[in-house]
Each structure stands twice: as C-alpha cells, then as structure tokens.
Amino acid sequence: MTSTIQRLLQKLEDPKRPLLGPTIKWLKLYGLILPRTRKGKMIYLSILTVMGLFIISEYVDMIIMRNDVNHLLLNFKYSMLSSVNVIKVITMYAWHKHWMGIFKFTTRVDIERRNSPDPIYRETVRKYTKYCRIITYIYWFLGYCTVIMIVVQPAAKYLLSSTYRQNVKDGTEKFLEVVNSWTPFDKTTMSGVASLYSGGWITSYDTNAFVLMIFFRGELELLRRDCRSLFGTEENPVTKEEAQKRIDHCHQRHNDILK
C-alpha cells in the first residue's frame, strides 16, 4: 500500500519544475491551466459554463424557498462556496498570462537555488520543498474527505435512519440532496460528480497559493541573509566594487519579488 502511494506521488513530480510539479499537474488536471488544444479548451470551458448555470439554479432555489429559513441557510452556505469556487477559476483564466509569469519566475529561481554552491541555499530549498509537499498532500486528502462526506451524506442518512427512510417513502419528508438547486426535472437521483469536480478546483487553486507563498517566504529569508553581508564583516570587509555588486544583485532580487 505504501509503495503504491509513493509511486502515485512520484508521478506527480516534474524534473523541470522541482517545486511546482504536483501543483501544476493538479491545475492542469482540473482545467485551471487550460490545455493548448482547441478541443481541450472547449471541454474545460464547457464544464465551467455548466457549473455556472448550476450555481444560478442554486440561487433560483433560494428565491423559491425563501420562506423556509433552514433550507435557505443551508443552500446559502453551499451557494457561496460554489460561487467563490467559480470565481477562482475565472480569475485563473482572466490572469492566465500573469499566473504563467509567476510559475516561470518561481521555477527559474527555485532551480538556481537548488544548484547554488551555497549549502544554506540548498538546505533552505530542501526544507520548503518538503514542507510544500506535506501541506499539499494533507490538504488534498482533507479536501476530498470533506467533499466525499458531503456527497454520501444523503445516502448515509437514508440507510442509517429508519425513521427518515420511512418518512421519505410516505412523502412526509423530502430526500436530502447533496446541494439544493432548482431544475425543471427530477434531479434527486443525480450523483455528486459536480461536487467532486468542484473539490478539485478548490484543492488545486488553494494548494497552488500555499506553495507560492511558501516559496516567496523562503526567497525573502535568503534575501535578508544576503543583505546582512552586503559589506562583508567587520573582520573581513569586502571591496567597494564587490559591495556595489552585492547591492545591485539584492536590489534586483527585491524588485523581482515585488513584481
């Protein structure tokens, strides 16, 4: 079992992107980074359109059931989560060029630090890479545990509660849905595929943000360290030319981070 999991995780790695390999592959899997082919783009954009229409149906359901406070609050909770989720995807598409620029910069700098002759650089990269993997995989696991619990909740309640099951059969109580929405047809037998896919959007977008913030934190730590030695030490000061070179280098790194 352990070896199987290790092989699966290894497939997520990318030698060309030592830090961002898993997150980039997850973003591509769920279409937050669109494929280059026209057909692939149309598929993912169609999924986004369908999800957007589904969210609209959730708000329609809230309007119809506005007098039922419990139903309204429950639907409002899921509708807000769905709305934020779709907005995340839209912003990834709208700012695609900027996101790709960040990925390119992060990968370039990360590889430079990994190949640095300075052992402190290499150790810093090793630590934040390990931390990123831990955070990423734990978040993916917890995220999908949450989604699966949401999807199986209606069926579990129906199977485990004889009173609820009888109430559903005699019509005194409605069957609990995964997410409440309005459709002009019977949707009570529909699966929770949309919720599972939505979970992929959440986990891919959020872990990408985590990893990038961890990277920039590590880069700021290294920049602070290098700024301390701009002029060498009191016992071993550097030349004016060397000090100017170090200042220019740190200034450029600072500007790159700000950009």
What does this structure look like?
- The chain crosses the membrane at residues 42-64, 76-95, 134-156, 194-216.
- It is a multi-pass membrane protein.
- Keywords: Cell membrane, Membrane, Olfaction, Receptor, Sensory transduction, Transducer, Transmembrane, Transmembrane helix.
- One of its GO terms (biological process) is signal transduction.
- It is found in: Cell membrane.
- There is one protein chain.
- Helix 3 (38-64) runs antiparallel to helix 4, helix 4 (69-94) packs across helix 8 (193-228) and helix 6 (119-160) packs across helix 7 (162-170).
- It is elongated and about 90 Å long.
- With 259 residues, it is mostly helical.
- The model has no long low-confidence stretch (mean pLDDT 87).
- The protein has one domain.
- It is built from 9 helices and no strands.
- The two termini are 44 Å apart.
- The relative contact order is 0.11.
